[in-house]
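Retro notes (design track)

What went well: tokenization of the new backbones is finally stable.
What didn't: we kept losing track of which sequence belonged to which structure.
Fix going forward: every design gets posted as structure first, then sequence, in one message. First example under the new rule, 149 residues:
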């Protein structure tokens, strides 16, 4: 089994809605394009441009750490650090997943259709970042004594 892990520094960002103009097709907002490029750069540098083979089944785990607001009580701050109090704010989980998976298309894997298992968790943290783990979970097709393993 192959597995990679990398971190994207800064506040987690979600996929923005495409904008349409009468002169061309849809375009992604600049903030989305910049964050996707950051995800690609972090993946390439931390995972040494490793790419999972086409047709492999992948498990993706994303942990998004949001910045702790400055103007809160010490008690609430500690609850956030202890992962008792969790973020109920934008960007929402599905948009964080979308921006990460789309950014990694043709970089970490052939296509995000290879992702067959997915988890996202959102926490507060003193160091805002997004941690991504990708693991090949394709069952072994080796034959041992006439049986698949």
């Amino acid at each position: 089994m192959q597995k990679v892990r990398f971190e994207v520094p800064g506040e987690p960002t979600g996929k923005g809605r495409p904008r349409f103009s009468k002169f061309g097709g849809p375009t992604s907002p600049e903030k989305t394009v910049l964050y996707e490029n950051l995800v690609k750069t972090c993946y390439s540098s931390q995972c040494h441009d490793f790419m999972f083979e086409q047709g492999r089944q992948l498990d993706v785990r994303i942990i998004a750490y949001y910045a702790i607001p400055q103007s809160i009580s010490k008690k609430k701050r500690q609850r956030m650090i202890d992962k008792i109090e969790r973020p109920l704010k934008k960007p929402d989980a599905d948009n964080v997943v979308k921006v990460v998976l789309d950014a990694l298309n043709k970089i970490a894997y052939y296509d995000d259709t290879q992702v067959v298992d997915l988890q996202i968790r959102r926490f507060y943290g003193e160091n805002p970042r997004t941690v991504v783990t990708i693991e090949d979970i394709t069952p072994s097709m080796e034959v041992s004594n006439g049986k698949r393993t």
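Added context from the reviewer: Residues 51 and 107 are 6 Å apart (CA to CA).
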